[in-house]
Sequence to fold (316 residues):
Amino acid sequence: MEWRTRFTEMVGTRYPIMQGALAVIGRAELAAAVSEAGGLGTITALTLGSGDKLRQEIRKARALTDRPLAVNLSPAHDPSLDAMRDVAIEEGIPVIETAGYRAGHHGTKVKAEGLTWIHKVHTVRHAVAAERDGADAVCIMGLEGAGLKSPAMLTTLVSVAMAVRQVSVPVIAAGGIGDARTFLAMLALGAEAVQLGSAFCAVKECPLAERRKQVLVDADPYDPAWRDPILSTPTVQELRAMVEADSTEAIVRAAGKAERAAIPEECGLSTISLSIGLIDRIPAAGELIDCIISEAEHILTAQGIGGFKLTPATSS
Fold:
């Protein structure tokens, strides 16, 4: 099958799959592996900490793949990202993803350079605002997803269905997605791509230690130690403290407080999503993508959805 959507045409990938920004582990090897497999790999700028290190990481990724790559710039209000944004532009990265308030802070500069700008949001209201500001696509994450939450968030199912009704640019779905069925569900809702984060934390190219990847394989999303911090949302006051922080260190402290609870320490990550319930092995990134696509194609062409198969109409 040919998986062509406005997203794949916009960014030049084979499949409508994007790697999410992953703090600490969103580096060249993982991003290149995702891109090589037909998705859009993403280097997380804040993980590198400086423009020079980001430049090195981009060039390392480019040595591993000639396929499209993205750079994530978030949280948008971190002042160190201005220099890293300029490096990503200088290095010719074709896709920039931003997140957080004031979408146009980085997006305006990205658009002026003729690059593709994706903005990630938590609510449909912010998706509409991002489109108004000029974003080429919006990624909307539901409550099941990883990272800092908004008090106004809804689930992925409802958020995506509402977003595609209210914006005209391509919508990328994020939050709790990790296999063929969740992939197809998002496309059925009207999304033109999915963003996977936690699923790529348990692939061979991820720099997490093997024992930490095995923790994700063994994790039970019904266990309150996982479920409660994942679904926790900060107060407005906690969010304001993070936005007003004037240094990366202060932002990290405020974000940690806003999350209220820690994912089990043995995981090795501060945030993860409910898609851990879909992680059952440690494949290569290419194997994961191939499995999602091949199973999705089998469901569509042979197995059917919910016991129903599309068949040609017969005339009476």
